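Hey, I was hoping to borrow your eyes for a little while. A protein chain has come my way and I'm curious about its shape. Take your time with it, there's no hurry, and the full record follows here:
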Amino acid sequence: ARSVPGFSMIEALTSCGELFVRFGGHSAAAGFTIANENIPALASHLQALANEQLSDDRLQPSLRVDAQVGLAELSWELRNDIAQLEPFGQANPQPVLMSTGVQVVDVRTRGANGQHLKLVLRKDHGPTYEAIAFRFGHLADALRRHPRIDVLYTLEANEWNRERKLQLNIKDFRRAT
């Protein structure tokens, strides 16, 4: 089980430890073994704790922006500089970049059910960049109607058929303001 900031999983599980065969972990994540008949009591207990300890604003998803960058500034040098910060993980997240007023030049859906987007982006008359947006396929038509966006992404190297390109892995976007 994973948690959100401000809610300690290990404290929550310890407070109802009698329900488990065994459990362990830390504040951000924990694991446990539980008898089936104890699952409803666990769910009720955890829901009550969450209601008591977490406010609605803490449960709103949020993204951290590390730098605002113009698309024309994207380069292999920047990608290599970012790679020097690896390994990425929960304690060291990959830097999230923001570019504003970006033009969506092309929108295509990908995946068995069209659940992902493959985009081509450009700022003004600058270079184009390919982007992937996992689980955003339902917004394809909206992007076609309103193709200027502000976008949050990680900068990645995409290798396909022996060709290496910079690619934006989109985390979120909004209509340009």
